Amino acid sequence: MTAQLVQNPIARRHSSRPVLARRAGRKSLLGWAFVAPFAIVFLAFLVAPLLYALYLSLFQTQLIGGTRFVFLGNYLKAFTDPNFLDGIWFVLRFSLVLIPVQMAVSLAVAVILDMLSNAFARFSRLMIFLPYAIPAVIGALMWGFLYSKSFGPLAEFFGAFGMTGPDLLSRDLIFFGLLNIVTWQWAGYYMIIIYAALQGIDSTLYEAARIDGANQWQIVLRIKIPLIAPALVLILVFALIGTLQFFNEPEILRYLAAGAISADFTPNMYAYEQAFALANYNYGSAISFALGAIVFVCVYIFMFITRKRGSFLS
Amino acid sequence: MIVAVATVALTGALVGCTSGEGAGESTAGGNDATNCTNTIPKSDLPVVTMWAWYPNMELVVDNFNEQNDEVQVCWTNVGQGSDEYDKFQTAITAGTGAPDVIMIEADRIPTFQIQEALVDITDLGYADVKGDYSEGAWKDVSVGDGVYGVPVDGGPMGMIYRADIFEQYDITPPTTWAEYEAAAQKMKDAGGPLFGDLGANVPAVMMALQYQNGAQPFTYDSATPEEIGIRLNDDASKEVLDYWAGLAEKGLVGKQDQFTPEYIAGVIGGDYATYISAAWAPGYLTGAGVGEGEDAGAWRVAPLPQWDPSNPVSVNWGGSAFSVTSQASNPELAAKVALGVYADDASLADGWQNQVIFPLHLSALNSQEFIDYEVPFFGGQQANKEVYVPAANAYTGMTYTPFGQYYFDAFTEQLAAINEGSITGSEAADRLQDDIVSYAQEQGFTVD
Lengths: 314, 448
Prior knowledge:
- The complex is a heterodimer.
- By secondary structure, chain A is an all-alpha fold.
- Chain A has helices at residues 2-14, 21-56, 73-78, 82-115, 119-133, 136-146, 153-160, 174-199, 204-211, 216-227, 229-244, 248-253, 267-277, 281-305, and strands spanning 59-62, 66-69.
- Residues 1-16 of chain A have low confidence and may be disordered.
- By secondary structure, chain B is an alpha/beta fold.
């Protein structure tokens, strides 16, 4: 795609001058040269590893018996492997709860900040965005301590009323513990995207609406949200992909709550465990590709559902 | 565009792989020995690379390098336990990047041995030092007839307890597990703290206690590597898990993961009256800040309670060895390092005096100074003489599995289910058995 963008103007400029056809040929080579830095990195660090992983996923290595070609055997195994399917089920449930919560928070904040234009709004915008600037590892560790039963603020708050605080690192509540961390981390980022989209709306539309007698609520619901729908679809796709590949936060919290978060908690963690702890690179690769396929299907379904409203990707 | 999104997704899924591999290679040092943590004093000698995480390793390596005129050690700490194993595993699969000598816990040796990643040192100087260690110590680093490591430190287990809490509730250290439960009940009835803890993330403790009760979880011999015996749900194993599940259900012990800030905070705060652990625990606890505040001098240790008092059994948790890897460019030199690096008096003494290691080298283990040592953490109690040395001497070794990582992960999952209250100890044992047997079969073993 990038290659075409570079070539087209050159080709078009010379198309009416056949005399220079040979030079044009050389120039199109020159175009490839401009693309080369990107293309080489792209091929070497994205396409080649993907192909290699695909190749690996077609084999099976046993501790006894060595390596043999099994074609799609690993994939058949993955889709009948309860550990993998449980992980998929978890991230799907997690997405279903997380994405609406995250969207609601970021949309509400963005709409409010869009209406204000004082110093407080600028300060709030920065503060809400800040968690995104904190590395996920640090964020997860920090929340792990905040959730602590013996020295976390939550426990102290409930303790002040003589109650026992909820243990968000326990098997029952880890879902909500993680939900909170991810919302905290990403809501600010999505807020900025929505906010930018809101800023791009022509303010004469609001003026016209007010002349027609619309109040603030109607402006938000009838003008702002419909106009930023493409941005909403975009962040939904981002959030969906990100959540299905959930890895960092649970992997870090495992150090604090190994009983609540097993090694196969999410599909990505399962792939990591298989490849790097159990030395089963073949099955780990197969899980990665199987997860990729599921992400693809989910995103496709989602875009099919939203195809009329959002112009993004359609 | 759809394709582009899917590609992004797939790349993301593989990020774990690529970054992991990169980390393994960059920290490996391999055989080029350019990024040692220590300075090599005699730069004209051949160099052996080494990974280890003992806290006093720098001093140990310096001692060795200064005394040795044949070989020099280039040491790096690439992480403790799993962190190191993951890097080593990557290096094994890649076929390059592993050090010449590596520190490994005894229970992981079969895992790497079966991948032919370790060198048998039987012909590389083992005979000369055979008498320096007990038979149990050698058994722990052996697979069948092959010796795949040089023992350094051991983990004879004992019951660490809070003397002040025991006194407050008028409890004498239990000598059997039945007494342990009775004491726990007594303490609970009197409104006392939890008596102990069943951490889902320390399955090695449960395995050791099952061993103590006469279970033989794995039978495995490197002469017939394709055959393995798995007995994780025999009566002895079930009894242990049912016992601990019962303690947890009755609220007599905690359900907290160990080695976490949460657990340590509880230990310091006196939430747990006992800690079932090994001889290296005082060093670990001291490092984590235990025994410095109100609980200073309150800790004591007693022999591990027994299942059958007429037939006492000593068991082990942890303890590490130095192994020569099959990627070593010069196995003879590497073996010299593995055998000698942590075997001199100065290093051993520094190790045990700072409670960094419980030495397995008999010169330290049998020295009167070590035996009579009044351990500051235990309020001057002669813990070595009273508990650990007898336990180490009575220890006969255990047989570990060639897929330790999978076994411990699966065990952790079952212990978590026990703590949740959703299954009994016996059910957990049955599930673990099924899980491990099917994994072993999938890996090509003939399961007996």
